[in-house]
Structure to design on (370 residues):
């Protein structure tokens, strides 16, 4: 696209956005707190999945002080099921930073925003443009795809030089009078008409500017990145059950540093409350028995009877996880510092990962069937 076409291009896209944009709750105000929460929730997560979480989160934590003062467990509980829990921990940490260093007001300078936990270039640009009308152009995978098609850019878009060129293009195209609307319009175009598969070029308000459409290669762009080979992970988990139907769950690590070094419980599971879990090593029952004997204050650990609960499958990015859960019936659930002794069905109300949820459900279904 030539520079002299920019005004016409901007006009076409902004008019379409004004007419067809979705009514999303975070678009109804310029409150940086709401925009920030939505942007973090929307990372790697679809709008439809975010909507109920956003409403619940805002109801419980209506402003940055409420979020900063909440216990981390409560923040994780409200996040439970949304995945990528590091986002919730960072959000909580950043809320504390905003209260401690900025008097509870979201900072307005990019360098200060980038100091906040969990905020990178994209999120900083999104918040600053949408909340404060700062002329900052966003570039994420969605916007990059649209720009790559408009300019018929071939190759891996995440390759650093190509990504920098796309950021330069995004900066040049930015409508500086309404940067928040502009960024959202580009993102909306990517989400609604120019998705990764089957772009709807006939409905596109900027099709006359689009090089990929003219060349008939819109569907081929962006070109595929080399995918990481899927990795199979096998785990074994112990679901204790005593006569009062209580079970045992272990706490998430107190700090992210601890989670890095804690290799006996795979970090995939241990970031939230979880059942005692170990790598299965090809022999899930044996691996679990040795672990329980070595780690828990159990009498007669060696003769524990483990009831197999089938297998639970789960996929996280490139990892294909299989968990072999076992029911371990005991008179009394062992006591451990920091661990929770809790009714099996109440585990579903704790901040737990979807994987732990599946294991708990497998145990509950087994108990109902017995
Ligand atoms: Fe995307 Fe098609 Fe519009 Fe080009 S014309 S921006 S490929 S929807």
């Amino acid at each position: 696209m030539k520079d002299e076409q920019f005004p016409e291009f901007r006009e076409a896209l902004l008019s379409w956005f004004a007419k067809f944009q979705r009514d999303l709750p975070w678009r109804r105000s310029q409150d940086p707190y709401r925009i920030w929460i939505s942007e973090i929730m929307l990372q790697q997560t679809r709008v439809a999945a975010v909507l109920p979480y956003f409403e619940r989160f805002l109801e419980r934590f209506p402003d940055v002080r409420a979020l900063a003062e909440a216990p981390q467990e409560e923040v994780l509980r409200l996040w439970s099921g949304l995945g990528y829990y590091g986002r919730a921990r960072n959000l909580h940490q950043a809320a504390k930073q905003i209260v401690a260093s900025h008097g509870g007001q979201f900072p307005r300078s990019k360098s200060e925003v980038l100091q906040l936990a969990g905020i990178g270039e994209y999120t900083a640009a999104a918040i600053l443009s949408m909340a404060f009308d700062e002329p900052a152009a966003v570039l994420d995978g969605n916007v990059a795809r649209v720009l790559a098609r408009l300019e018929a850019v071939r190759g891996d878009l995440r390759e650093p030089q190509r990504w920098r060129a796309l950021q330069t293009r995004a900066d040049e195209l930015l409508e500086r009078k309404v940067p928040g609307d502009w960024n959202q319009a580009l993102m909306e175009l990517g989400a609604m008409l120019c998705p990764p598969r089957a772009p709807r070029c006939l409905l596109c308000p900027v099709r006359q500017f689009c090089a990929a459409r003219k060349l008939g290669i819109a569907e081929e762009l962006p070109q595929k990145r080399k995918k990481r080979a899927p990795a199979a992970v096998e785990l074994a988990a112990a679901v204790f059950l005593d006569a009062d139907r209580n079970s045992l769950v272990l706490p998430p690590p107190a700090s992210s540093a601890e989670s890095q070094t804690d290799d006996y419980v795979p970090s995939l599971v241990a970031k939230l409350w979880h059942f005692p879990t170990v790598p299965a090593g090809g022999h899930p029952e044996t691996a679990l028995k040795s672990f329980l004997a070595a780690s828990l204050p159990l009498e007669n650990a060696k003769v524990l009877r483990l009831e197999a609960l089938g297998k639970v499958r789960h996929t996280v990015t490139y990892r294909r996880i299989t968990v072999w859960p076992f029911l371990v019936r005991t008179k009394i659930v062992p006591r451990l510092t920091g661990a929770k002794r809790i009714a099996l069905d109440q585990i579903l109300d704790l901040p737990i990962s979807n994987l732990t949820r599946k294991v708990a459900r497998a145990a509950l279904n087994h108990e109902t069937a017995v």
